[in-house]
Amino acid sequence: MKKFKLPDIPLNQLKALLNQLKALQLPLNINLQRREKLAVAIAGAALIIFLVLQLFIFPTIGRRDRLHKEIISKTEALQDIRASKTEYQSLSRNSKDIDARIKKRAKTFTLFSFIDQLAGKSGIKGNIASMKPSTANIKNSSFKLSSVEMKLNSLTMEQLTTFLHGLEDPKNVVWIKRISISKADKNEGLLNTVLQTETYQR
């Protein structure tokens, strides 16, 4: 086995080298290296945690939130569809019922003539100040809306009650849309009335 011979170092040079090593303060350098290693380890751990959050945790939470929102949206849409279906069925039944009742009315039936005849039967024809008929088309319907606005002056409470009772006629599909009642100016106990009555017409 080949032997290696260390070079001869003078004693004064060896002492100078030892003094230089003492001046380096090795314990301080060792402590600094440990802090650096700790900092690198912490940074590495933080990076790993960040990658795990970005690649696994956050996407999972995001997908769960999106799925939750989508479920809520689909549920609300389904509820709207069910509500629309129920409303359509109700309107369809009402439309068929209304159509059946309209067909039972006299072919010569008009809202204006119906009110005029009722006023005569109620004994208030002389109290009619005005009657204004009008007709309007109903969107997406085969029906038309027939309306009569009338003004009545100086009615007793009994006369008004009797007339209104006869005016609301489900059999002929007639209803009161609005009514305004006020006291007559000169006659105490008498009433003035403005009302609007409607019905469906073919």
Summarize the structure.
The protein is α+β, with helices and mostly antiparallel strands and 202 residues long. Helix content is 56%, strand content 21%. The model is unreliable at 1-7 and 24-30 (pLDDT under 50).
Describe this structure in words.
The chain has two domains: 13-104; 111-201, Ribosomal protein S6/Translation elongation factor EF1B (Alpha-Beta Plaits, 2-Layer Sandwich). 56% of the residues lie in helices and 21% in strands. The protein has helices at residues 11-23, 26-104, 111-121, 157-167; strands spanning 128-137, 144-155, 174-183, 191-201. A four-stranded antiparallel β-sheet has the order 1-2-4-3. The longest helix is centred in the N-terminal third of the chain and has 79 residues, at 26-104. Mean pLDDT is 75; it is low at 1-7 and 24-30.
Primary descriptors:
4-stranded antiparallel sheet, 4 helices, alpha+beta, disordered N terminus, 202 residues, 21% strand
Q: Find the structural class using helix and strand composition.
A: alpha+beta
Strand tally is: 4
Distance separating the two termini = 125 Å
List the helices and strands in order: HHHEEHEE
Separate helix tally: 4
Biggest pleated sheet:
4 strands, antiparallel
Strand content: 15-25%
Helix content: 55-70%
Integer average pLDDT: 75
